[in-house]
Amino acid sequence: MDAFALITITILAVFLGFEVVSKVSSTLHTPLMSEANAIHGIILLGAIMVAGQAEDPLALALSILAVLLATINVVGGFVVTDRMLLMFSAKPRRTEVGS
């Protein structure tokens, strides 16, 4: 595939992703984010595989950068998901004093 086809597919995927995510109700955003984090974990594995097979110093540097960015994305996504789930958890009841 040539570069023009890859750029076209990327732009169409961005628009499709924006339209799909904008139609999702707010109650489903947390499970959707968790699924996206799992997909980014696959991207992280791919970046590690590319880094392991890189022979060119530029390819190695770019793959290490991809591993770093994918790791930040996965960890940050799960931290945000955890914080969002804490917002929906039940708060402990207060015990009344003197009763």
TrEMBL record:
Catalytic activity line of the entry: NAD(+) + NADPH + H(+)(in) = NADH + NADP(+) + H(+)(out)
Domain of life: Bacteria
Topology term for the membrane: Multi-pass membrane protein
Transmembrane domains' residue ranges: 32-51, 58-80
Main location: membrane
Domain NAD(P) transhydrogenase alpha subunit C-terminal: 7-89
UniProt entry keywords in alphabetical sequence: Cell inner membrane, Cell membrane, Membrane, NAD, NADP, Translocase, Transmembrane, Transmembrane helix
Subcellular compartments: Cell inner membrane
EC number from the UniProt entry: 7.1.1.1
Function description: The transhydrogenation between NADH and NADP is coupled to respiration and ATP hydrolysis and functions as a proton pump across the membrane.
Protein name from the UniProt record: proton-translocating NAD(P)(+) transhydrogenase
Taxonomic lineage from the root: Bacteria, Bacillati, Actinomycetota, Actinomycetes, Micrococcales
